[in-house]
Here is the input.
Amino acid sequence: MGKLYIVGIGPGGLKHMTIKAKEVIEESEIIVGYTKYIDLIRPLIEDKEIFSTGMMKEEERCREALRLSKDKVVAIISTGDAGIYGMAGLVLELRKDENVEVIPGVTASSAAASILGAPIMHDSCNISLSDLMTPYELIKKRVDMAAQADFVITLYNPKSKGRPHYLRENLETIKKYRSGNTPVAVVKNALREGEEYEIYTLDSFDDSNVDMLSVVVIGNSQSFVRDGIFITPRGYRL
Ligand code: SAH
Here is the structure.
């Protein structure tokens, strides 16, 4: 009897993968994943069979992973956490009676937060600006309501060539509810090669360095920056 592990490999650097994720990858005979993510864990999988496909082949990849797992031990990998804009949902939707286990990982918002300081200390939410599978109207509504409710917001998939203005448009929405000096940070390649970050305010924000390898973290009404460190207070009276 085979097994399918759905593995979050963390933000990219091997040191930030959990021990369990590493163990199940080592145990697996076949690794399934998007080519670029396979490359992130290449040193761990030299001796394994690999099934990788381009970005738009998610469904095919999940079906293949399920099929292979009937008699082999297989790992299908996502970056970050597989259950956050990763492969876990689709695999489980397609699953019939295969033996499946989800292994969590460090998601991009946690990775980015660790670099910035403590920006998501209080109630927060993740919103993806990708409209490939979510209507843009709904995305805008969620940003508006999260801003109204004073959540710290992490934007995933913040800017792509096909929708370069979405980020600016949604930050304008957030500005309706928050002051211009609210901290806004861009973290690119968090905890992996090429890491960069920049902290702005809503007023000074410049989106020119934002791309699909970045997340954007917007503070709540209490967030501040001290000595270059982005903090959202938990509420202790100091
Ligand atoms: N499952 C992943 C998210 C996949 S969606 C997770 O839990 O992190 C892809 C988006 O995640 C990217 O467009 C980017 O916004 C974000 N992302 C993933 N890894 C990142 C990293 N190391 N640094 C910054 N952003 C990252």
